[in-house]
From TrEMBL:
Family statement drawn from the similarity comment of this UniProt entry: Belongs to the SufE family.
SUPFAM superfamilies the record matches: SufE/NifU (SSF82649)
Recorded superkingdom: Bacteria
Coiled-coil stretches: none
Domain Fe-S metabolism associated: 10-133
Biological classification of the source: Bacteria, Bacillati, Actinomycetota, Actinomycetes, Micromonosporales
Pfam families: SufE
Organism: Actinoplanes lutulentus
InterPro entries: Fe-S_metab-assoc_dom
Full protein name: Cysteine desulfuration protein SufE
Length: 141
């Protein structure tokens, strides 16, 4: 797991339940805006498992690092928090590091005690689709 993401996981796992929700809100505000090239979600994949519209795009760079882009409406703070966590935690990560992220990431963070199982499934689907995009890009290269 990339070091930045491991640190975020540890922070959440050790935080009291009442602080976890505040931490999620902070990450929901940390989603970088989309570049103009992805305006209108052009070339992005929608994650239908999410209750709200969520789009993502992973680009594997020539040096093997991955650039991620996420878009989700501000009125869906929990889902946006998943995007913020991944955007920050995976910044500068290699394709191999991203593919090694455990599928039960959100359970390891202790989020099951703070948010609904439906939201956890949505977050898990986001991670799964992101990893699938990275794996496809690596196999094409």
């Amino acid at each position: 797991m990339p070091p930045k993401l491991a640190e975020i996981v540890d922070d959440f796992a050790s935080a009291p339940r009442e602080v976890v929700l505040e931490m999620l809100l902070e990450f929901s505000d940390a989603v970088p805006p989309l570049p103009e090239s992805l305006a209108g979600h052009e070339g992005m994949e929608q994650v239908p498992e999410c209750q709200t519209q969520f789009f993502l795009k992973a680009l594997v760079q020539p040096d093997g690092t991955v650039v991620t882009h996420f878009d989700c409406p501000p009125e869906a703070p929990t889902t946006r928090a998943f995007a913020g966590i991944l955007a920050e935690g995976l910044a500068g990560a290699s394709a191999e590091e991203i593919l090694a992220v455990p599928d039960d990431l959100y359970a390891r963070m202790g989020l099951a005690q703070a948010i609904s199982p439906l939201r956890i499934r949505g977050g898990t689907a986001i991670l799964g689709r992101l990893k699938r995009q990275v794996a496809a890009a690596v196999s094409e290269a």
